[in-house]
Write a structure and sequence with these properties.
Order of helices and strands: EEEHEHHHEHEHEEEEEHHEEHEEEE
Helix content: 10-25%
Number of helices: 9
Number of strands: 17
Largest sheet: 11 strands, mixed
Length: 435
C-alpha cells in the first residue's frame, strides 16, 4: 500500500463545491500520476437516483458559456477581503434581465454570458431544466432555486414577459405598494423563506423611484456521504494566502475519495448524499499561488481535472468554517461587458415594461457553512430597477474589485458539462470567517 497523502499543507485552497453528476457521465478512472501519494481504490458509484439532468447540445453549450462567465466574474472579485459568490444565482438574474431587455442592452447582457440574441431560447431552456431537476436528483440533498419579480403597483409588467419568466424561470410576478413598509417586509421575507433563514434580508429600503426588484434565491443543504468525525476535529495550524499561520478547527477524514495531483495542484472530491452532488477541494502546490491557479483555470481544464480523477484513500484535513458576504455587482458586471443596463441614458428594458427603467443596483448576499455533517449554502441576487426621468444622470457602475483571494466554487454538472454554482473568496487575515 502506498503512503497516504495528507492534504493539509496550506490554507490557500480552491474548492469546487456541489457537483451534480449522473451515473451515465461517470468515466473510467485514468492512470494515476507517478507522484500520486494516495492509495488507489476501485471506482464504485452506487445508489444514484434514476433521474438524470439531460440537456441538448445547444443547452449544454449554453451551460459551458455560463461557466466561462462564472470564471470571468470570479476574477473580477479576487482580493483580500472575504467573499462568497453564487455565479449561478447571478446568471439566473442576468437571464431574466436579458429577456426583459432590448437592443444593445440585451446584446451586452447576453455577451457577458458568452451568448448572443439567437441563443437566448437555449439559455432559457437550460435554466428551466436545472430548476425542474436539481431537487430531484438526490433525495438526501435539499436544493431550492426560486425567482421573483416584485413590481411597484404603479408599474405595469408586460404580460408576454411575465409569462416567459413564469414558464422558464418559475418566477412569481407580484404587484406591491412600495410606499408601504409591508412591501419591504414581503421582499425580505421571501429571501428568508427561500433560503431557510440563511439570507434573512436583501435590501434595507425601497426608494420611491424604484420600479421593480428582480431576485433569484438558491439554497443547498447536503450531508457528506462520508461524514467527518467531530471527535477528530482538533485545533491546528492553518497557513493562509499570505503564508501567515493561524489556529483553526481542523476536520479530519481518512476515506476513499476521487483524487488527482498534477504539476500545479492536488484535488480531492467529497461527495454528498448518494454521490450526485460533491465538493472538490483544490490545493495549490507549494510553488504555486492561488492567483496563479485561478488565472490558469478555464472550463476545459476543469472538465479535464474531473475526468482524470481516480478513487483513492486520502487522509484529508479541512477547516470547519462559515462565511457570509455581500457583493455589489454593478462594477464587475459592467467590466465584463454589460455597462448599458446601469446607465439611465442607455438602458433599454422595453421588453419588460413600457416604463423606462435601468438597473440602479445589483447585489448579492451569500453564505456558506462547512462542517463535519456537510454543507449549507445560500445566496440571493437582486436587481433594483429605477425609473428613468429627465433628472437622471448617467449612472456610474460601482462595486468591489479586490485582488488576490482564496476561492470556493460550487458546480452543477450535467451528463456532459458542469454549471458553477458558488464561489467563496476568503482572505487569510482581517477575516470574519468562523473556524
Amino acid at each position: 500500500m502506498k503512503k497516504m497523502k495528507t492534504i493539509d499543507k496550506t490554507a490557500t485552497m480552491v474548492l469546487a463545491a456541489m457537483t451534480l453528476v449522473s451515473c451515465a457521465s461517470a468515466n473510467k478512472a485514468q492512470k494515476p500520476a507517478d507522484n500520486m501519494q494516495a492509495t488507489k481504490m476501485e471506482n464504485n458509484m452506487e445508489n444514484l437516483d434514476n433521474n438524470y439532468l439531460i440537456l441538448s447540445d445547444e443547452q449544454n453549450a449554453a451551460i459551458d458559456h455560463t461557466n466561462a462567465f462564472a470564471l470571468n466574474l470570479m476574477r473580477t472579485l479576487t482580493g483580500m477581503e472575504p467573499q462568497v459568490l453564487s455565479p449561478l444565482s447571478v446568471a439566473y438574474l442576468m437571464g431574466m434581465l436579458a429577456n426583459g431587455a432590448n437592443g444593445d442592452t440585451q446584446k451586452e447582457i447576453l455577451a457577458t454570458l458568452n451568448m448572443d440574441t439567437n441563443s437566448i431560447n437555449n439559455l432559457n431552456e437550460s435554466y428551466k431544466s436545472i430548476i425542474s431537476m436539481a431537487s430531484k436528483l438526490d433525495r438526501q440533498t435539499t436544493i431550492n432555486i426560486a425567482n421573483i419579480i416584485a413590481a411597484n403597483k404603479n408599474i405595469s409588467i408586460k404580460p408576454e414577459f411575465a409569462k416567459l419568466v413564469g414558464d422558464m424561470y418559475k418566477a412569481d410576478v407580484e404587484s406591491l405598494d412600495f410606499s408601504s413598509p409591508k412591501a419591504l417586509k414581503h421582499i425580505n421575507g421571501w429571501c428568508k423563506k427561500q433560503t431557510e433563514g440563511m439570507i434573512p434580508s436583501i435590501i434595507e429600503q425601497l426608494d420611491p423611484n424604484t420600479t421593480s426588484v428582480l431576485m433569484n434565491a438558491i439554497y443547498f443543504y447536503g450531508t457528506w456521504t462520508n461524514k467527518f468525525d467531530p471527535d477528530q476535529t482538533k485545533e491546528e495550524n492553518f497557513r493562509g494566502y499570505t503564508r501567515d499561520i493561524r489556529r483553526v478547527k481542523m476536520m479530519h477524514n481518512e476515506h476513499e475519495f476521487h483524487y488527482i495531483k498534477n504539476n500545479d495542484f492536488a484535488a480531492v472530491r467529497l461527495p454528498y448524499g448518494n454521490g450526485t452532488y460533491s465538493m472538490t477541494v483544490i490545493l495549490p502546490n507549494e510553488d504555486k499561488s492561488v492567483s496563479e491557479i485561478i488565472n490558469g483555470l478555464d472550463t476545459k481544464k476543469l472538465h479535464e481535472m474531473n475526468e482524470s480523477m481516480e478513487e483513492c484513500i486520502v487522509d484529508l484535513k479541512l477547516p470547519r468554517f462559515s462565511t457570509t458576504t455581500e457583493t455589489k455587482l454593478n462594477n464587475p458586471i459592467a467590466k465584463l461587458g454589460a455597462p448599458s443596463m446601469f446607465q439611465s441614458d442607455k438602458a433599454d428594458f422595453s421588453n419588460m415594461s413600457a416604463t423606462s427603467m435601468y438597473v440602479s443596483a445589483m447585489l448579492q448576499k451569500a453564505k456558506i457553512e462547512v462542517s463535519e455533517e456537510g454543507t449549507k449554502a445560500a445566496a440571493v441576487t437582486a436587481s433594483i430597477m429605477a425609473m428613468i426621468s429627465r433628472q437622471n444622470h448617467p449612472q456610474q457602475s460601482s462595486g468591489n474589485n479586490p485582488n488576490n483571494t482564496t476561492s470556493i466554487w460550487q458546480q452543477l454538472t450535467t451528463r456532459r458539462s458542469s454549471f458553477r454554482w458558488w464561489e467563496c473568496l476568503k482572505s487569510s487575515h482581517k477575516t470574519k470567517n468562523k473556524y
